[in-house]
Amino acid sequence: MGDLSGDRLVEVLATLASPHRLRVLAALTGGRAYVSQLARDLGISRALLQVHLKKLERAGLVTAHLELSGDGKALKYYEVTPFSLHLTPDVVAAAAATLSTAGDGDAPPKGTS
Amino acid sequence: MGDLSGDRLVEVLATLASPHRLRVLAALTGGRAYVSQLARDLGISRALLQVHLKKLERAGLVTAHLELSGDGKALKYYEVTPFSLHLTPDVVAAAAATLSTAGDGDAPPKGTS
DNA sequence: GGCTCATGCCAACTATTATTGGCATGAGCC
DNA sequence: GGCTCATGCCAATAATAGTTGGCATGAGCC
Question: Which of B63, B51, B60, B62 shows the shortest CA–CA distance to B8?
Answer without folding.
Answer: B60
